[in-house]
Amino acid sequence: MSALAASVKTKRLVLEPFERTDAMHLFGFMADAAAMQHTYVAPSYQHCLGRLQSYEATRDMLGFAPWVVRTAQDGQVIGWGGLSIDPLEPEWGLEVIYAFAPSSWGLGYATELVHASLGFAFGNLGVHEVHAFAKPENTASARVLQKCGFSLQGYEPALARNHFVAASTRAA
Predict the structure, then answer these.
(1) Where does this protein have coiled-coil stretches (predicted)?
(2) CA pair distance 51, 108, nearest whole angstrom
(3) What are the structural domain ranges in the chain?
(4) Which residues pair with residue 85 across a beta bridge?
(5) pTM higher than 0.90
(6) Is 134 in a helix, a strand, or coil?
(7) What is the C-alpha to C-alpha distance for residues 167 and 172, in angstroms, rounded to an integer?
(8) Could you tell me which of 140, 133, 141 has the C-alpha nearest to residue 164?
(9) Strands 161-167, 151-156: parallel, antiparallel or unpaired by DSSP?
(10) Which mean pLDDT values do the consecutive 10-residue runs of the chain (172 residues) have?
(11) Best exposed site among 73, 153, 165, 168 by fewest CB in 10 Å?
(12) Sign of torsion over alpha carbons 98, 104, 105, 107
């Protein structure tokens, strides 16, 4: 099992593999159209569970998948994200993705998750670049990505999103 499959701790977060018992916590905000206005909105608990399980199934094959994001202080589930190759659209390559409960917005948690994800991508996987996609109107995500070293590559019409890339600064 890859180091990415295990739990990871940052200063304020615990990043853990998804388990079925996490689904209801995640569904609480993943079904909220306002909270998820820039990404997939789960139409039902079963759809949410199925989608989360499809991402988690890639962990065995790839050695990584998005994590459940918990606060280190009290273990509260506040989000989901990390490194991913989308099981439905793998042609976009290695991406960092994330979604957070609105109560955790603006507190730097997304930045902390993205930094941890890039550290693992460049350090543990040895990849040279990671992609991210955000709708043009999602300025908060664009700020997070740019703060973490991503640069805007342009608009991707097939996804109706801006395409960002973070490149490793390590010598090849």
Answers:
(1) none
(2) 26
(3) 3-167
(4) none
(5) no
(6) strand
(7) 11
(8) 133
(9) antiparallel
(10) 64 93 84 71 81 84 91 94 88 93 94 95 92 95 97 95 91 50
(11) 73
(12) negative
